[in-house]
Structures are given as C-alpha cells and as structure tokens.
Give the backbone structure.
Amino acid sequence: MIPGLNRWFLDLNGVWVGTTNSNWPTVKKLVETALSTGRVTEQDLHDTPEQRDAMAVEITNSLFTLKIAAGLSSTDGESHSITAKPWRHQHTDRIHLSYVYEQHTLNHVATDEETHLGAADLALTTEDPSKASRTYWTRRSWRTGRNTAGTLELSRLEPRKEKDRSLRDYDAAC
C-alpha cells in the first residue's frame, strides 16, 4: 500500500519456486564408506556432485506475521516455519530472511525421520526482491550423521489467481 516502505519492509507474499542443492550424496557416500571396508578421500567427497531438487515455497507476511510453507520434489514432505525474521545486513545492506522450520515426511525411508527441524537464510536485494538465494541446513537423522545442508535458489512467481492451488501443484510444475 505504501511503496516507500518496501525499502525497509519488503512485500514477500507469494509463491516462490526454485531448486535446492543438497550435500546428501556426500553424506550417503560417507555413511556407505563407514559401513564397508572401503576408503574415501577428501577429494572424493569434494568431487561428489550435489543433489538438485525442485521446490516450491509460499510466503505469507503482513506487518505482524511472517509464515513460510515449503514442499520439495524429492520427498512427500512439507515444512512450515516455526519462526521467521527478515533483517538487513549492516555491511552489505542486503535483506535476509532467516527462519527455522519443521518438516514432516509421511512416507520417510529408514534413514530418515518422520519429523525434523531445519533452518535457512535467504538473501534478497532491494534491486530485485523477486529472487532469493543462500543456505539451509537440517537436523534430520543427526545421530547417525545424516543431517544435510545446501543452497536454495528461489524466484517469486506472479501473484496467484487461483486461491485453491496448493504448493504441491507448483512443485509438480518445476
């Protein structure tokens, strides 16, 4: 309603689509090596390609609330923010969106958990607030060293015209 405020309070509302790049293949290689008589070098781990998956995120924000819901193409899981906060980096002037989320995966595999926590830090710029990227990390299966981390790259879609379209519909389109 007041465009001048967007410098300080960006309108993040909408559906964002993009990709995650996860270190899951590296984690898997470490676990498989630990369970075998094989050997893996640090260079082997460094050269392991990341796993790329499509994702869809819906952000709902107002002056008093900020909620984030996400779906990932590689799982049937959905995540919802527990807490979220936009903030401005004092040295770069970039706006960040940092949040902690809880993910539920109904059809989880034996090496996963039904529910786990994670966190993400997305960086936006005032020049192009329709793009966000940065890092995430999870607490999934941490007792067995299977917690993951990686990068997120998101772009905001035009505002939705269909009120009943779900994140899964956007996720399938990726």
Notes: Helices lie at 24-34, 42-47, 167-173. Confidence is low (pLDDT under 50) at residues 170-174.
